[in-house]
């Protein structure tokens, strides 16, 4: 993530990966304030054993694109909601990558962070049958949790 304030959004990706027992590393790597850290991480990611990068950033949101420009690993960008433009600035920044430097762009905020983790897990599950089983079980639990009929909040006191 680009800053400590992004953790409020990106913790949902970490929690989802934890729930699926997917090992991961959480770092603050700012494209603007810690460019040397970004270069070292992105260029060394494959060698360090990383398989997928989830990069969350707000505002100018250069982190996902800059990371993608320095690695051939899949990079999934999560636009973090901002006060000024509600995350639209982040979304536009991440989604407008030039041809040849792809960044998979997810939804703004919590939904994007959760889905980035699920998408990363799906990519990793291609070569990990145990993870594929955990991902299938997660989706089955999600399906089972959906009620067949809506409840009437007024009839149940709330």
Question: What features would you describe in this structure?
Answer:
The protein has a three-stranded parallel beta sheet, sandwiched between helices. The chain is mostly helical and 158 residues long. It is built from six helices and three strands, in the order ααβαβαβαα.
The residue ranges in which pLDDT falls below 50 over 5 or more consecutive positions are none
Rounded average pLDDT: 95
Computed CA radius of gyration, to the nearest angstrom: 17 Å
Quaternary structure annotation: single chain
Overall, the morphology is globular
- Count of separate DSSP helical elements: 6
Which structural category fits the helices and strands? mainly alpha
> Considering DSSP H and I runs of 4 or more, what fraction of the residues is helical?
40-55%
Strand content: 5-15%
Sheet with the most strands: spatial strand order: 1-2-3
Main β-sheet: number of strands, strand sense, barrel status?
3 strands, parallel
Termini separation comes to 38 Å
Order of helical and strand elements? HHEHEHEHH
In total, the number of strands is 3
